[in-house]
Amino acid sequence: MVDVVWLIPALPLAGFLLILLFGRKLGDPKAGYLATAMIGAAFVVTVGVFADLMSMDAEERRHVSTLFRWVPVGDLQIDLAFLADPLSITMCLFVTGIGTLIHLYAVGYMHGDERFSKFFLYLNLFALSMLVLVLGENLLVTFLGWEGVGTCSYFLISFWHERESAATAGKKAFVTNRVGDWGVMMAMFLAFQAVGTISYGGLNAAAESGALSQTTATAIAAMLFVGACGKSAQLPLYLWLPDAMEGPTPVSALIHAATMVTAGVFLMTRVNPVIAVSAEWVTWLIAIVGAATALFAATIAVAQHDIKKVLAYSTVSQLGYMFLAVGSGAYVAAIFHMVTHAFFKALLFLGSGSVIHGMHHEQDMRRMGALRKLMPITAVTFIIGWLAIAGVPPFAGFWSKDEILLYTYAKSPVLYVVGLVTALLTAYYMTRQVILVFFGEARWKDQAHAHGAHGDLGTHADPATDAHESEAGGTDGGQAADDHGEVHTPHESPWVMLFPLVVLAGLSIVGGALQLPFSSDLHFLEKWLEPVIEFGEADIHHTWAYENKYVLLGVAVVIAAIGIAASVMVYAKKKVKAVEPTILEQAWYYDKGVSAFMGGPGRKGFDAIAWFDAKVVDGAVNGVARLVNGTAGQVRKTQSGNVRQYAAGLGVGIVLLLVWFVVIRGIL
Amino acid sequence: MSFPILTALVLVPAAGSLTIAVLSERRAEWIKLVAVLVSVFTGAMSVWVLSSFETADAGFQFVSKHDWIKPWGISWHLGIDGISLFLVVLTGILFPLVIVGVDPHHDHKRYLAWLLLLEAGMMGSFLSLDLFVFFVFFEIVLVPMYFLIGGWGYEGRVYAATKFFLYTMVGSAFMLVGIVTTAVLARSNGVGHLTFDLVEIAENADFATSTGRWLFFAIAVAFAVKVPMFPVHTWLPDAHTQAPTGGSIILAGVMLKLGTYGLLRFGLYLFPEAARWSRPLWLTLAVIGIIYGAVAATMQKDLKRLVAYSSVAHLGFIVLGTFAFTSQAISGATMQMINHGLSTGALFLLVGMIYERRHTRQIAELKGIQKVAPIFAAGFMVVMLSSIGVPGLNGFIGEYLILIGSFLTARWWTVVAATGVILAALYLLWAYQRVFHGEPDEANRSFPELRAREAAILLPFIGLIVFTGVYPKPMLDRIEPAVDALITHVSEQTGYVAPDLPEPIVHEAAAETEGEEAQP
């Protein structure tokens, strides 16, 4: 089964091609089911490969399948090859598994959209790119997927491209990601120069055998981290992710929560031997950037009103945790949290999509409330997702977050405290979200108030969304498409949307079982990943943190409880006034600052160069032309036809020549 | 003796041009028929050359050599190698597409006659292995292009055509002096007799260091203008913007490559020492071109001008690779000449279609086209992604090879040059957003969708863009031997040592598949 690993990306490719050719004919919903079937089949193949790998000895779980030689020039020989090993198959399992659920969900969510089949065309192309990314046997194949997911992300964020904000957000995501891609390219060049190959096998073997110098390893690791910051939305490149929420909600769940944004963490794990032999400051840099991003984004999430924006900043924050883990040498914990996060964040996003769907494309939480009665399944599953992300045992997020904090403590108690504060804030803002959406009074009845107070949310007056909404509303439950301003009664979503929620909720409950801290017999994920990460994984046995891991466990529970309790006091019991300062709502003005710089001095600089080109460089050329023209006009006057004038000229010339030869050259 | 296929590649379009010139203006269908047949036949011959090309052979193939003006040592010496092969094929493919697909609207007879003469000139330039014959073709090319811009161009065509002609003529004047001096000096410096034969001079001549440098620069100036390199690039935006669509496609597709091809063939090959000595200058100008062209492109208001400036940036990559002196970089540069021809040629084709529909090229006047013409937008998108350099499409492979190869010998230049990749995304996506995204306004609401005939012209471009991006090996296999031979030549002449890379450590599991690979 492991020989057919190429089938995993080939199936979504087939889906992409089929929809490209017949998508319009298939239409809604057949195109969606075709796409779902393709990624579902890829999941089945992945399970087969997984079972095959499991049946092998741990050290043999590494299979390279080469399709063809891709870029061969001289010493540079790059294959289009896939690597099936525990890390890549773990990634494939949740990419295809969660991908299938989200595809299915999207069949319901996108129902009625005029570009329905195109949406699934892009989704399958995305799945293909993501699988190529994780299966790549060398940096270039990964880069193929890396840029592919970036391109699909661009397509899907600006899917409703009639909307100016969606188009801008897509472009912003692509360009910001390209900044990171520059780093990945540099890393590839450095690796090629240093070890003569960019295959992971060769690069990691060079690092493990000591053939890779510390200086080069440091440079490669740092440059790859630049790329990871772009793709995984870390400071200072996270800017594109909150804007990416302009895309349809299944896209936010699949690309901007569960899969694509974790690619940076995957890449760092893939090259963990290189990071291990690089200078100490690289791991500190990764850990500090991760911790800073986690805290930074969590503070912003506290004051957001858009249901998806809260989740977006929360994703940035959780990705920060994963980098904190990578920087602490806790690769297993990073992957563990990646997987559980994929479960519960996909669940939360899909849940929010269900709410948005049921609320007729309302995204402002101030106009929600008390939805648990009208949308019971959405509410229950969302609450499970909330418990998982808030760090309540025994839900999945608790265990993975705890594992990260354990390693972080061993690395640096200061970073541990940052991680704890973030955990507190996470529990706080997620509780706030659940209360605002599902509990309290039903504020959606109070449309007049809402419109008066929050008229700035202009994204709803968009024709594409309206068309989408009217058709979607028209089919499930026979709701008429009204103009905004009239009261809609929220309704529960159809089964194709609820089924994925239920499955993901189940996974969010039991996901922690992958790696429980109580006994090393329960470290399933660690044992599975060991061949890939054993060189880079930090050993924290015999540290204070490890000896007292149950103390840390207890502290984490207390912190989560405090966060939840505080939020309940503020938003449910209303005993304390809510603190939502504008500076947090505006994301510390960082995005605004960057935009202002780009639109102001940045644009002026670009304009200055364009002006320089038109006036100075080209001006010089036209100046020369004018000069020649003018001089020629003057010179023409000497051709007067006056013989005496010519004779005089001749005489002067002879004299000058004589002076030259006699006086200056000394001849005669 | 075998059929002189290369001579035919030059003479068939020339004969076609003459035939059209003597045909009566009133026989419009005959004229079109002759043009189509001649260009398709020439294209077919170029494809035949490609298919019978000896892949591993680094030398010149299909050589035909006859004395022409014996006292001066000028000979009709044509040959093709991996460096010129794909340029010849691209020329062969582009011309029929332009002739069939782009309508000049008036004076078909003269238009088609000039186009075929242009094709003959391009073929001759890429095939000549005699300095004098090359110069003749290099100059012939100017004349039809001058008339095409001046006769079928847009509002500022006369200014643009004159500027184009004068600019390149100034460069050519230096080149003529350079070529004649080279031949004359070569006689007393190693060659022994007067000859303009490129191979003979390159292999035998032994110029004094400073002489070689002077000669190199005399010739290279003409190429630098043609590329065009910063700061002698300003003829290009005007020429491109004002040229008719067909002219722009040819100009960007193959004509600019005369500059980069010339730098390889008549720069590095003929004067390796001087090329190596002046490397920092070329690398610096190339990197400036990459960044400067991209920044200038970002701020353009005219879609065609934007694409023209993007050419300045893209050609900067090619020059960077040329002067990096590594197998990867020069192979990448050679490949990128083709890639740029495909993607920028297709971009001009698409911008031409927009102009046909809307009679404007101003970005500000276009809006929301993706909503009314999604297939047209999708075609534009694929071509644009190729130009941006997204992996899986052709542009990436070339750019990547250039950068990875240049990194070995010109690290810091490459570090800066690679940021051009970010800027490329910025200016193209921004332009795309303004033209295709948003809600279409009144003027754009009736923008017609891609027609079948237009799709038929666009599909070959897209097919080649995707194929080259996914499977570049056949192309690289043919390019690399010639490039390696060139680098070996440079090493022998100058003592340059190509970077030596460590033997990669092969992972045990990878070694198994490696073995399987090696068996066939």
Topology:
The complex is a heterodimer of chains A (668) and B (520).
Chain A: H1 7-54, E1 63-73, E2 76-84, H2 86-109, H3 116-135, H4 139-157, H5 164-195, H6 200-209, H7 214-231, H8 240-243, H9 249-258, H10 263-270, H11 272-277, H12 280-301, H13 307-327, H14 331-358, H15 376-390, H16 396-411, H17 413-438, H18 447-453, H19 463-475, H20 495-510, H21 524-533, H22 544-547, H23 549-572, H24 582-585, H25 590-636, H26 643-664
Antiparallel strand pairs in A: 1-2
Chain B: H1 5-22, H2 28-52, E1 61-69, E2 74-80, H3 82-101, H4 108-127, H5 131-152, H6 157-191, H7 198-204, H8 209-226, H9 235-242, H10 245-255, H11 257-268, H12 272-277, H13 279-298, H14 303-322, H15 327-358, H16 369-372, H17 374-388, H18 394-409, H19 411-417, H20 420-436, H21 452-470, H22 473-494, H23 508-518
Antiparallel strand pairs in B: 1-2
Helix pairs in contact in B: 1-2, 1-4, 2-3, 2-4, 3-4, 3-10, 3-15, 3-22, 4-5, 5-6, 6-8, 6-9, 8-11, 9-10, 9-14, 10-15, 13-14, 13-19, 13-20, 14-15, 14-18, 14-20, 15-17, 15-18, 15-21, 15-22, 17-20, 17-21, 18-19, 18-21
